[in-house]
Amino acid sequence: MLTVSNICKTFNAGTVNEVRALRGVSLTIPEGAFLIILGGNGSGKSTLLNAVAGTFQLDQGKIELAGENITRWPEHRRARLIGRVFQNPFTGTAPNMSIAENFALAARRGQGRGLGWALSRRLMDELRDRVRELRMGLEDRLGNAIGSLSGGQRQALTLLMATWLKPALLLLDEHTAALDPKSADLLIRATADIVSRHKLTTLMVTHSMQQAVNLGDRIVMVHRGAVACRFEGADKQRLRVPDLLARFEEMRRREMLDESAAALLEKTYV
Amino acid sequence: MTLLLGALTIGLILSLLALGIYISYRVFGIADITVDGSITLGAAICAVLLIKHVNPLFATLAGFGGGLVAGAVTGVLHTKFNINSLLAGILVMTGLYSVNLHVMGKSNVPLLGADSSTKWAERLGHSWFRAPEVNVMGWLVGARDLAMLLIVISLIVAACLVLYWFFRTELGTAMRASGDNPQMIRALGVNVQRYCIMGLALSNGLVALAGGLLAQYQGFADAQMGIGMVVWGLASVIIGESLTGSRSLGLAIYGAVAGSVLFRLLVAIALRWGLNPNDLKLVTALFVFAALVLPQLLQRRKRAATLAKPQSQS
Lengths: 270, 314
Hints:
Chain A has 270 residues and is an alpha/beta fold.
């Protein structure tokens, strides 16, 4: 279970470039639940995911995962509990190393690394079986450099790597955003399959409303670094893309109203 | 033939330097200039201990240990204090100049009369070949030189095997990944800073090992012997990559050794043909410059040709 309590983060504080990226965000993901974070560009959804991953330290707030307070843990320490798939297909793998070597690294996620052989026969056998399940024909190319594969293939392998050891939390950071529609569709299907099969607690960031509607069992909409609305249970099941669009439109209108009201107040009193 | 044997032996000894540079430059992407100081440090520690009648094996290993520490210091400056890697290397290299002088007590330590690996080679040569000279394919070569070459070959083969094994272990694989994609390996639970420190330590340890062996082969350690060694190592790595490519770890390690030997042979031939020894460092620097720039120029030309092609067709 993941509990995020009142987290705040301001980048470049005290400068002209100051950005209040997170303003008191709180959310909970029960064990085995699949939460989608939805929001427009610059809404703070990726910052929220990075805060959970430990990419930066928070200004305020608390993050608890699997009963541990991980707020001050560095990113590499959190990896013991968190599996992650990045937005950029080139970020999740070591391009000059073979597919098998990349998996050997993933097979020790968050554990000590000693002087034993990284690639054991047992790992290779298991790897062949699990890569075969992706139906990409990569099980016979495990010795090839992973950098020679397409973006879609690399993202699918990154997903498999992130879930090789069952993580307490799986983070998906717009992992289909850089792919063509066909590859994105295949990856989404693989994601749904792996998440449901292993009953993974998952936090996925996306700006695709279709994905938000089809996947997951709860949605949190983020706007200007804060939670704007939540959908769970029956509300989430009933939700369709036009409903989400309407919510976005409403938020945009409210924002414009706020801005025009501020301008009026400034004109009248300043 | 003696010249060839000497060039081969020095080339093989300096292949440890090339392997060290391979780790820092190709694995971590850091042009680590610490090696100019750590090769001298290895030579200095080894020479001083040999004069104090320490076993040559321990003296050489102590030099290796000195290099480990020097590399670790550069790694700490770079990762923990956020100093640019090049500047961190310059700082440690500059500091090592004084350290080396303190270790040696003077700028040059001759090893005359000290029991070193060269003396071992001499004794082994006598016991193996039972003559001061040996006939190798019609050429007469000194038994000592041949024995020394055989010792160095076995040492380098052992070092390469150990390095190959290390980089295939869980620890070594993670170290390679730390240089290949730090963001990814951090997300898999590796403390990239710690691995960078370990990698630079290992790199400079190998370089210092080369220094210790070189001092024993040459018969002296000198405070100036490290100048330009980073460029020498880079040249060896670049030549090696053009010989073997870098498709696999084994080929890359083999390439670094082959590059070092070939480069030393080329230098020996150039000197034999009358190249002024004073110009050697300049020629080496120009060679590395050309090796770094030529691929870019070729790529630019290729791109320009590709862009021009559709226009000429239309």
